[in-house]
């Protein structure tokens, strides 16, 4: 979940990551995201906190001798690659156990919520910093693996705070 929240990766992109896809010798270490939804590849830099967690996980893999079982970064307790279909159910149970509920007449949280929140947080930060958000949006689209910046527009329309920031900027 930390990787999804800090990178905005799609769930499928995260579970397809292979150990050799991270460039540990660079700071920050980027992931090489391959075979995305639109069959493109990109590099995604990691925030130091998830990078440190991934280093820890890599040491655990070695200690448990999972290297011989799979090249996948995220493996089950049996050392097999995580399966996409199991994750939404696991996440729904986790939300239920933590009493995280959808807002009134809203949708329940899902793993894609991390991606949406990542994009919205980027835009909020840019507005707060006084940056030209329209000039930065194509960068966000590339980072998220979208073919066109327009594919990221759903983030703007879904969050009142971002709409208000955009409206205030428009008035000045």
Short description:
This protein is mostly helical.
Could you explain how this protein is built, in words?
The N and C termini lie far apart (38 Å). A two-stranded antiparallel ribbon has the order 1-2. A hairpin with an 8-residue loop joins β1 (30-33) and β2 (42-45). The protein folds into two domains: 2-97, hpI Integrase, Chain A (Orthogonal Bundle), CATH 1.10.443.10; 112-171, no CATH class. 19% of the residues are buried. The chain is built from eight helices and two strands. The protein has helices spanning 2-7, 11-15, 48-64, 86-97, 112-128, 133-144, 153-158, 160-171; strands at residues 30-33, 42-45.
The total beta strand count reads 2
Sheet of most strands: 2 strands, antiparallel
Note poorly predicted spans: none
Biggest sheet, spatial arrangement of strands? 1-2
Instruction: Write the CATH fold name of the largest domain.
Output: hpI Integrase, Chain A
Q: Report the top-level CATH class of the largest domain.
A: Mainly Alpha
Strand/helix succession: HHEEHHHHHH
Instruction: Work out the strand percent.
Output: under 5%
The helical percent reads 40-55%
Report the CATH architecture of the largest domain: Orthogonal Bundle
The structural class is mainly alpha
Shape by Cα distribution: globular
How confident overall, as mean pLDDT? 83
């Amino acid at each position: 979940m930390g990787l999804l929240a800090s990178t905005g990766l799609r769930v499928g992109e995260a579970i397809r990551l292979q150990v050799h896809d991270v460039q540990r010798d660079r700071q920050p270490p980027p992931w090489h995201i391959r075979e995305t939804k639109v069959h493109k590849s990109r590099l995604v830099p990691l925030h130091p906190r998830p990078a440190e967690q991934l280093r820890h996980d890599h040491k655990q893999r070695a200690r448990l001798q999972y290297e011989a079982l799979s090249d996948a970064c995220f493996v089950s307790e049996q050392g097999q690659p995580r399966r996409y279909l199991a994750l939404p159910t696991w996440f729904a149970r986790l939300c239920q156990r933590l009493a995280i509920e959808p807002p009134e007449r809203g949708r329940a949280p899902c793993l894609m919520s991390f991606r949406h929140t990542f994009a919205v947080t980027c835009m909020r930060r840019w507005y707060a910093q006084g940056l030209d958000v329209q000039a930065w949006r194509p960068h966000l689209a590339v980072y998220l693996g979208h073919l066109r910046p327009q594919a990221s527009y759903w983030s703007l329309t879904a969050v009142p705070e971002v709409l208000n920031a955009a409206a205030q900027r428009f008035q000045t």
